[in-house]
Amino acid sequence: MSRFLLRRLLVMIPTLLAIVTLSFFLMRAAPGGPFDADAQLEPEVLQNLRAAYQLDKPVPEQFRMFLSGVLRGDLGPSIGYADYSVSELIAIGLPVSLKLGLTALTLAALLGTSLGIVAALHRNRGLDYAISTLAMTGIAVPTLITAPVLTLLFGVTFKLLPVGGWGDGDFRHMALPVTALVLPQLAVIARLARGSMLEVLNQPYVRTARAAGLPEWRVILRHASPPALIPLVSYLAPAVAGVMTGSIVIEQIFGLPGVGRYFVNGALSRDYPLVMGIVMVYATAVLVMNLIADLLYGVLDPRTRRRMDEA
Amino acid sequence: MTKVVRVFFALLLAMTSTAAMSAALVRGIGSEPESFDPHKAVGTSASVVIYDLFEGLLTVDANGEAAPGAAESWSTNADRSVYTFKLRPNLKWSDGTPLTSADFVYSMRRLLSPDTAARYASFLYIVKGARAVNTQKAPPETLAVKAPDPRTVVFELEGPAPQFLEILTGVAAVAVPRHIIEKFGREWTRPGNIVSNGAYQLVDYSPNTLITAKRNANFHSAASVKIDEVSYLPIEDDNASLKRFQSGELDVTQRFPPEQLDKLRREKNRSLRTAPGRGSTMLALNTRQKPFDDPRVRRALALALDRNVLTDRILRKTAEPAYFVVPSSIGNYDSLRPDWSDWSMTERQKQARALLSEAGFGPGKPLRFTMQYYTESKTRTLAVGMVAMWRAIGVNCELVNKDLGAVISSVNAGNYQVSLYAWYSSFDDPFTFLDLFIQKPRGSITGYANADYDTAFRSANRTPDPIARAKALAQAEALLMRDMPAIPLFFAEGQKLVGPRVGGWVDNARGANLSRYLTVRG
Questions:
Q1: CB proximity under 8 Å: B 151-190 to A
Q2: In which domain, by residue range, is B340 found?
Q3: Which positions ≥6 away from A148 have C-beta within 8 Å?
């Protein structure tokens, strides 16, 4: 098990390096530069600016400096937020994105699995159809639509909740963005849970458990649920990264100060250091989450655990 | 059950009670300010905040006109090449430290020091020695800004410049606190560190969320400032900005979806406020390449565009048709209107076809080119409309859409055929618009190179008498417009939403409404 973990951790290093290298050169290949939006800068002024951010050096040299900065834990100064360093900005934005994303995903996971299991147990009956319809709607309607509708309804019409902003990250400010983030995730999870639960319920060991006279709740919770959760785990772990990135749209619409917004603004204004910093955060998150998913398979499925130990 | 109901209502009450209004002004400012350092900041959202926090020798008054700031008076020599400013007595920074003429000398040196890498440094190139300092050819101490006594600042310029006072109203020309900058370095603008000399001082800032400023008791006119606290919310999304304005959270915002314009115009309480803008939208033509090296082709394309259709039908009367590049809202300046602006469209099309056939284009060999445009409200419709207008004279234009940064960088690199381009100036003076077309080391935006125009512009710009200068500049502009390196399209108006609680708001072309002149009903 520990050897498996060690090997996976070692593989992450070249993967991360590949992602960072590719992003770095893709960013530089994109047309335009960080000082373009200012239109006609005098050449002398532009020269001073480029020198201040070391953009006057050749690109491979800049890459080398970037990598050595990363190894020292220094992501450099942001170009678009001139008073801050990239690390400071990530330290400000990441807690917001994490709080938002993890709250949404936890809610989606809890509600989604419960709804999915309930639907599976009422297969092809009214409740099942109701939940499935709800889930399909959730998947079909994009956040881009639900978010403005929610703000219009609860913010402008009924004036119950703030239309945007983060405040202190309190319940009132979180309610609408979290709801908008939860809905599509909830729908996907409910469908996944229903499908896999139905499959598990037909397995011989469930039949055996029932035949042995165990009470139904015990059959469901103890014997059917854990294996039914496996496909969910493989979905949930990347979804954590997905919710973090997916909240980019939400952060923009609700004006929340998360990293997603820095990412979008940074990419549009060609704030190279800022974008690179956030790419590193996202890439690490995806890699770590995938690793966690693999480890969880082991916990939930004895067969996988054995294979990991052999590895 | 009743308990549950009671809890529910208690919650509901808690939610709504915080919405009770306090007597603070809340301004929506669009994008996040890049910096609160006046030498590093760029763009309108930062300037809204910086105008409230800092003050230069000159500032703008409630009507957006240049007015005395830290200086109470000034004088100039006969040819307007030396300016002497007298500071108000007993000026102080917000921390109580005395503010003297030495602070202005320091601020100008810092603005021009190459290490600061200030984007707006070039506006001060007009000061003797400034360019040399900014290009590391001379130390900052050689800059011709002197402080003969604690209340006097003297600027010696490269030549006569009646526009110098206007340049000093800019955000980059404010005073910055040496004692704080040297103490905290890059972190000097953080709340807690920052010290300023304007009507307000920064007290709180969380990036992308909220900027809060409180009244500065040490401001020279603190007694006349009515609003105690100003919050600035950076909101990029147009829809979100409008909704937060409508829900009463924002008192002022400049962002809303353009498709809501008609609805906002019909509103009873008229929150929509407009003023002529200082922006000039044009088509840049790359005169380095065929076929745009031929002025006949450039003129033909300009003649064939019906600006009234663009401004009235597509932009729904939010812009004024343009037949020259300097916006009509620039004060004390009158561009010369070309005669063809009064012709009928049929006449103009006929003339355009004739010019094209002279240049060798016609039904057998139609003019073909590509036009790039950036994504902004209505730019696509405008581009499609112009393609149709050109088709009427037998010209084939293909469209390419790019993001704004890509458009500007390809224009700067001279790597385009025709490009949508907009130029804004915060100064009430024509020079920045006309300066776009003079030859520079890396070429002008259109590659236009006409030594006659360069001479006409440069000598006009250095005319000491303001009225004679304006006339001469207009002549230079007319010369430029005969050659048509860029086709003027329209001057877009400035639009803002101002809520019913706000008083003292005067719409102005500069688009500057300092919080110190406003009032807010509690």
A1: 186-187, 189-190
A2: 279-492
A3: A253, B239, B243
